Amino acid sequence: MSALNLKDIYNSFLKELTAGVKNRDHGMHIIQFGTISSSGPEIRSVVLRRVHFDPLKIFFHTHADSPKIKELLVDPRSSIHAYDKTQKKQLRFSGVSTLVTSGSIYEEQTRKMTASASRCYLSPYAPSTLLNDYHPNLPDIYMNKAPTQDEKLSQYPKMTLIEFAPHTLDALWLRAEGHVRLKANFREKEVSLSWLAP
Predict the structure, then answer these.
(1) What are the pLDDT tens digits along the chain (198 aa)?
(2) Torsion of CA 93, 96, 97, 98, to 10 degrees
(3) Which domains does the chain have, with CATH numbers?
């Protein structure tokens, strides 16, 4: 019989995810987000911005003109991968994503954004646009300075908040004394947990 408590282990995984929001040096501050395009799977790194519980939801920002937006409009199925090398814990979520462009959560996230970070949403080109020459995709006037607060507000239409709702979680904890792996199913009203073979 296992001496480990399934729910306690599950909560320890979510604790690391929450730490990734608050601590930019945490391994789960940068997560990998996967979508499905017309040519196949796509994956990229994004910054974890917010985690909600009951039910679990994961949030991050993206540019409104980025390819991932178009992909999600066609097929909202998506995935998230997070790994913290210090704790040696890996999270693999599968679920669906919703685009958020208004409301209290959206407004709160835009207020939290630094003026320097807002430059990314004032870009002259849509992300992934083919260019003839190198360009950092920042407006010339903000190449070496951040926008003012008023100028920062003008970027809101180009920022989209992605709300990811997981259907399942496959979580792995690497340990010398024996790896630990579990599955969480979020499709029911109550989260169901089960052990998996590592």
Answers:
(1) 458 999 999 999 999 999 999 999 999 999 999 999 999 999 999 999 999 999 999 999 999 999 999 999 999 999 999 999 999 999 999 999 999 999 999 999 988 888 778 888 888 899 999 999 999 998 888 888 887 777 766 666 789 999 999 999 999 999 999 999 999 999 988 899 999 999
(2) -150
(3) 6-195 (2.30.110.10)
Q: Which residue type is seen at 128?
A: S
Q: List C-alpha distances in Å: 62 to 9, 79, 88, 160.
A: 31, 15, 28, 5
- What are the beta bridge partners of residue 44? 33
Closest by CA to 58, choosing from 25, 80, 87, 35, is 80
Q: What is the token pair recorded at 172?
A: 């792995």
Q: Which residues of 140-155 are buried (b: 16+ CB within 10 A; e: fewer)?
A: eebeeeebeeebbeeb
Cα separation, 83 vs 91, in Å, equals: 6
- For residues 48 and 20, what is the distance between their CA atoms, to the nearest angstrom? 7
